[in-house]
């Protein structure tokens, strides 16, 4: 399954009360169940739309990454109404409107920003342009929802912080590897409910398939994409802050290099970083563009969460050698071992919560501080990274 197809399929909206695990019985010791008929932890219910048609209007612009379809589909499934689309390239607009025919083609971005009915602009611009675009959107009185990575340098982050503080608008980020992962969202609730106790360590693995021929030129230009730790590493930093309940951290190690793509020397196809959180928790992650063609999906993304009373492993997109389906949660607590497949059972409650946050000026889906801190940690790791140079 292609990543953008997975993102769109799993995107949903919010259910009243969220997706709290329900206690329905105990499991005896022994091997993990293949199907959780008697499991203690039951995912769901799936979210439902939180607004009616026309109650929350948004627009899409700068369609430089295919993540824009996941962003738009998730907002629509949560009840939002897509009114406009804009991109300087008419071919991108035409392709977008084939998928979302209700979207009107704007002649310029200003046509969207001047529309008082539009509350939110979502975009997937070239990475280095996302920060300045977001500030322009917020200055126009709209909330902004960008693809990750939200910035390519700390100066852009600092400017966005100033503009959010001055305007009161939101600069939210599509950290899709948790927000559109049903396994990731179910784990969020398990951790918040204290199922594994206090989180001590989070380990993240974020491999990706490069699919080089399909990538635009800017993807391989360091100044425009920011580096691998800044880019896909931002997913990992967001998950660390969430699962470990940390609000800050410091980089203890970072490294990146190009091992398999000498024809694109500015691309980093491997990176790793480690952090210590401000609450004593630790985090290590590895990201890469080295997924082999033999894997049945775009990447074998995994997360390991160690607590004082148990641990969780997430096999997000495939259970290698066992099942092609995504969203497998493995959990061990003080009473037993559990395999909990959650594909199609959790949805993506973030998007409905975010819509309500925009309407009510609350921060229940994700705080602005959290979204910015995840970006800050990834940018600091990128800045500190040791350059790895493979030798013969």
Give your account of this protein's structure.
The protein is an alpha/beta fold and 392 residues long. It has helices at residues 3-10, 67-77, 90-99, 109-113, 127-139, 154-167, 176-179, 182-192, 222-225, 233-244, 350-360, 368-384; strands at residues 22-23, 41-42, 57-63, 81-86, 104-105, 118-124, 143-147, 171-174, 199-207, 249-257, 270-277, 282-288, 302-307, 310-315, 328-332, 337-341, 386-388. A 9-stranded mixed β-sheet has the order 16-15-14-13-9-12-11-10-17, with helices on one face. The protein has a 6-stranded parallel β-sheet with strand order 5-4-3-6-7-8, with helices on both faces. Strand 15 and strand 16 form a beta hairpin. Helix 1 packs parallel to helix 2, helix 5 runs parallel beside helix 6 and helix 10 (233-244) crosses helix 12. It is globular and about 55 Å long. Residues 1-38 have low confidence and may be disordered.
């Amino acid at each position: 399954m292609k990543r953008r197809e997975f993102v769109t399929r799993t995107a949903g909206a919010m259910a009243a009360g969220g997706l709290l695990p329900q206690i329905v019985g105990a499991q005896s010791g022994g091997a993990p169940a293949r199907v959780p008929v008697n499991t203690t932890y039951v995912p769901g219910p799936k979210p439902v739309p939180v607004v009616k048609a026309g109650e929350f209007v948004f627009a899409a612009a700068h369609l430089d990454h295919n993540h824009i379809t996941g962003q738009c589909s998730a907002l629509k499934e949560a009840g939002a109404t897509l009114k406009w689309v804009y991109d300087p390239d008419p071919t991108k607009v035409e392709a977008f409107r084939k998928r979302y025919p209700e979207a009107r083609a704007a002649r310029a971005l200003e046509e969207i920003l001047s529309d008082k009915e539009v509350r939110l602009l979502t975009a997937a611009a070239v990475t280095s342009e996302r920060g300045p675009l977001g500030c322009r959107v917020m200055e126009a009185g709209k909330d902004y929802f960008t693809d990750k990575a939200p910035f390519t340098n700390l100066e852009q982050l600092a400017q966005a912080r100033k503009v959010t503080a001055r305007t009161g608008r939101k600069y939210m980020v599509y950290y899709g590897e948790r927000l559109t992962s049903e396994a990731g969202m179910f784990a969020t609730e398990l951790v918040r409910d204290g199922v594994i106790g206090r989180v001590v360590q989070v380990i993240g693995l974020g491999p990706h398939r490069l699919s080089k021929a399909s990538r635009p030129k800017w993807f391989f230009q360091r100044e425009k994409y920011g580096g691998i730790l800044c880019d896909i590493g931002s997913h990992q930093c967001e998950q660390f802050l969430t699962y470990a309940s940390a609000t800050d951290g410091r980089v203890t190690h970072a490294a990146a290099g190009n091992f398999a793509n000498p024809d694109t020397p500015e691309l980093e196809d491997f990176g790793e970083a480690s952090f210590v959180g401000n609450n004593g928790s630790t985090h290590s992650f590895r990201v890469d563009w080295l997924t082999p063609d033999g894997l049945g999906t775009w990447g074998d993304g995994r997360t390991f969460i160690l607590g004082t009373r148990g641990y969780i492993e997430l096999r997000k997109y495939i259970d290698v050698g066992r099942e092609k389906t995504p969203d497998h949660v493995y959990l061990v607590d003080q009473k037993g071992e559990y395999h909990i497949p959650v594909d199609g059972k959790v949805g993506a409650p973030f998007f409905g919560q975010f819509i309500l946050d925009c309407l009510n000026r609350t921060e229940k889906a994700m705080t602005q501080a959290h979204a910015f801190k995840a970006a800050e940690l990834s940018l600091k790791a990128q800045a500190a990274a040791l350059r790895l140079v493979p030798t013969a």
